[in-house]
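Support reply, case 0932

Customer input (verbatim):
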Amino acid sequence: MDRMFSEVSENLKKNGFLVKIFNNTVEAKEDLLKEISVDESIAIGGSMTISNMNIYEELKNMGNQVHWHWKAEDKKKELSLARNADIYLSSTNALTLDGKFVNIDGTGNRVSSMFYGHNKVYIIVGKNKLCKNYDEAIKRIKTIAAPKNAERLKINTPCRFTGKCSDCNSPDRMCKAEVIIHKNPGATEINVYLVDEELGY
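Our regenerated output:
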């Protein structure tokens, strides 16, 4: 188990979050599926971590109503329906050792849903997302998360080709809103699943 998990887990708890630690994705997914009842609706944020877990298909097979714009033909309609879901699943761009979530988003649907509008939120975090502090978190986002997502989406931002942020004015720019969740705002129950694997970007 990553030795930093103990430190970040304690700090997350101090900041008002519920925390569980898992050895791998299989264990995390098994627990998450037990936590969700079939009558609960679920929304999923844009997340390679959630995509890699293949949990969307399993939730659909269980009979849950699942809203994920990545899987929908009408993305705007799906995003609208997702706002009222009971449960929200996502990951984070970075998690600092003092228990703060650092995210940069394009439209804001992901970052706002991480702390408001749902009964429960589950944030799945692989060990590659752990950062010592805010500066390291921002560096991670600008040199790893943003460029890799730009490449995945095949958009024409400089970071896609240079591998680092240049604070561009490209029409395709994804980085428009920076949100730091210092402590649980209290409007929803936020569960953090720390997974001892590298997950997502």
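We compared this against your earlier run and they match. Two observations from our side: The longest helix spans residues 134-153. The radius of gyration is 16 Å. Please reopen the case if you see a mismatch on your end.
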